[in-house]
Amino acid sequence: MKRIYIILLAFLSSIIAYAATPADSTAQAVADTVAQTADTLKNDAAIPLGDVIDEVIWVIGDDAILRSDVEKSILQMKFDHADVDGDPYCIIPEQLAVKKLFLHQAELDSVEANENNINMQVDQRMNEVIAQIGSEEKVSEYYGKSIKVLKEELREQAREQTKVQQVQHTIVSSNKTTPSEVRKYWEKEASETELPIVPTKVEIELLAIEPRMSLKEVEEQKNKLREYKNRVENEGASFSMLATLYSDDMGSARNGGELGFMGKGQLVPEFANELFSMSDPKRLSRIVESEYGFHLIQFIERRGDKINCRHILLKPKISIEEKQKTKSVLDSVVVMLRTNKMTMEEAVAKYSTDKDTRNNAGLMENSRDGSSKFEYQALPADISRVAYTMNVGEYSEPFFMENSKGHQVCAIIRLKSRTEQHRANLEQDYQMMKGIVQEKKNQKSLEEWIKKKQGETYTRISSDLKGCDWKYNNWNFSDK
What we know:
This protein is an alpha+beta fold. The protein is built from 16 helices and twelve strands. It has four domains: 1-44, no CATH class; 50-108 and 174-197 and 430-480, no CATH class; 198-211 and 319-423, Chitinase A, domain 3 (Roll); 215-314, Chitinase A, domain 3, CATH 3.10.50. The chain is flat, with a radius of gyration of 28 Å.
């Protein structure tokens, strides 16, 4: 009924647009009522945007941008509490058109998106949405679509964004920033505008040991997987259901263990080698051990050099006794560190099992900018909580945390340095200022690339967009 009503409203609006004049107060009153009712229904998130009458508002090359594309973007911005500086019905269509330019280049360059990363992005985004709205059922009601459809839409958005980023990276990859350019920028900004406040940042040295799994626990997890394999192959049980109920990979468990199509290089070697030797959906894999735990794999389908599969992941639980043994080792290490009988570098080399920091004397690296400095909120939560009350040069007591693979480890940290909040300066913040200069260069390169592509690409817009002020003013609009 709502769908019929929306179509009726759109029809009435089109009639009024032709028939009403400013002097026609009756028609104007009807138009106002229709508009208000349409707004009310439009704000009812249970109505899918796809149910609104659609039209092409921008043609760019062989691609079209629909009015519903703009409406979806606006709805998402409202959900994210994002603002647009100007008319969204002008700004968003242009943003979508620029995105089409990059996607066309991605197609020419045969750019591929890493499906494993895409799946992780989709799971993270969906978890955020569910946390905000309350449940999968409420999310489905809000958008008027099933979770499966929503996730596929998110997956496509993530693919496109990844391809755009890869094209942009290629465009700016030759840009380099010299120290003299950084100094010129600093001198100019220092004299013309107020330099930004740089928040407190710290450097952390980490020594982490993963407790050993007992043979008994390992065998228990393997026996569970053997049982699941027997239930699927001999008793007709659903692999998807077992994955949903029992897998420790929470991201794929929500999809019945399904990972999506991935190439061999996107998977850890042990998993990939087993999967790419499979071809029969009815025959499950042997038990595969990787750095994440133990896997049981079901082949689904092969497309070229990519395979879609399901898996069940089980992570052996660490016994209290093994945890205590590991903590006792680190208790002794801390004593030696505090009495200068051993350096942190020596301790890391001898004891650490953390692959990310072991070859760097324990110094953590910030993946966001490649530096060793972190704002507190950018650190893993357990490390941030411990480091916040420490003094420079101090060693923490041993504590348990979850590492990047989802495994429990026992760790100690040393606060190597702390740079307090301050006004940006060249001596302390060279890398930050270099990044700003690099970003300005990159932005200029991208704008020049967009301008060039605008002139080469056929474009046509609907009449209601012709009064817009464009950010990129080199569009070659056609009247045909």
